[in-house]
Amino acid sequence: MMQVEAIKQLFLKHKESHLQHRYITHKSIKPLLENLSKKITIETIGISVLNNPIHGIKIGSGEKRILMWSQMHGNESTTTKAIFDLLNTLLSDEALVSPILKACTLYIIPILNPDGALAYTRINANEVDLNRDAQNLTQPESKVLRAIFKTFNPHFCYNLHGQRTIFSAGNTNKSATVSFLAPAQDKVCTITPNRKVAMEVIAVMNAALQEVIPNQVGVYDDAFNLNCVGDTFQSENVPTILFEAGHYHNDYARDCTREFIYISYLTSLDYISKTDVTGVNYQPYLEIPENEKLFFDIIIKDAKTILDGKEIITDIAIQYQEKLIGGKINFIPKVEKIENLDGYFAHKHIQANKLEVFNNNMQLLKIDSENVFVMINNEKISLLPK
Q1: Which pLDDT value is given to residue 306?
Q2: May I ask the CATH class of domain 296-382?
Q3: Position 93 confidence tier, pLDDT thresholds 50, 70, 90
Q4: What is the pTM of this model?
Q5: Which of 287, 339, 356, 370 is catalytic?
Q6: Which of the following CATH numbers is that of domain 4-293: 3.40.120.10, 3.30.1490.20, 3.40.630.10, 3.30.70.270?
Q7: Does 236 qualify as catalytic in the annotation?
Q8: Burial class (CB in 10 A: 0-12, 13-18, 19+), 172
């Protein structure tokens, strides 16, 4: 099987330099698609609510069919960046990846929700979450995915997403940098033969990722919701894997996590190409810790404030709000909680040392207030990510 160090070298060699940071739209990938179309099949498979094209990319000639779709939620772009890194690699003359193209055929939808991508929103232009529209199929984007699922008839589905900075890998001070799920296919969450196949592939990816981000891989709880695309496809006996690109230390652009997703792609595709995946080796999946919501972006510890007329020492939690401003994603610090946060963790800690914490107007911080910096003991401290 492919070694992680070899995959990391491939990433450095084939990373798509035209895709950076978080704002990835149809305009971002259009020149890349035009270039790729000289070598592989790229087609317009539908249009969005606002008449933006939805593209499908077909690569490989093998019998094992794998359907991948990204940016079902328009503001979850890390997996899209890694898709183009993967395509560059597969179209190279690298001997390491040739078995994938011989054994597998991949069908990839790089941006399923182009309107949401343009607006940098989770929902589509009709304000519908496409990942809750699998049964009703009310939206054109949902119908596009369903049509490809029917015609391509995949053996595996890769449902590609991004997750917030709030998740920990279990009850630990470790961020869930990559998360997975083998979705349930019934209400009692039976570990079916079909789910075991998905679990086995996830276990292989987890083993690889432990070499680069130890204890930073999680799984989501498998509560069943047939309106979700993954649950629907799993319930139709197609092994389906949810990928979630999460936070790595100081990586708010998600360019480090992009590499970990790329490692996951290549590890899993290499395994599928060389293995008859039966699900017999699913057990390690059950040992991956379940995600918990234990992180804030910043915690200011031991701040003096006034509550109900009394002076107390407490903590302040700050979470970034991602906002599209002038074609760029800005991270706006917002106060989420003012309370004892001993059970929580943060990506950045600031120690107030029992002093008051003021905003730029020299007022004490309040819940829901937005502040790009704070003042502690007359020192100005930035709250923005590096």
Answers
A1: 84
A2: mainly beta
A3: confident
A4: 0.97
A5: 287
A6: 3.40.630.10
A7: no
A8: middle
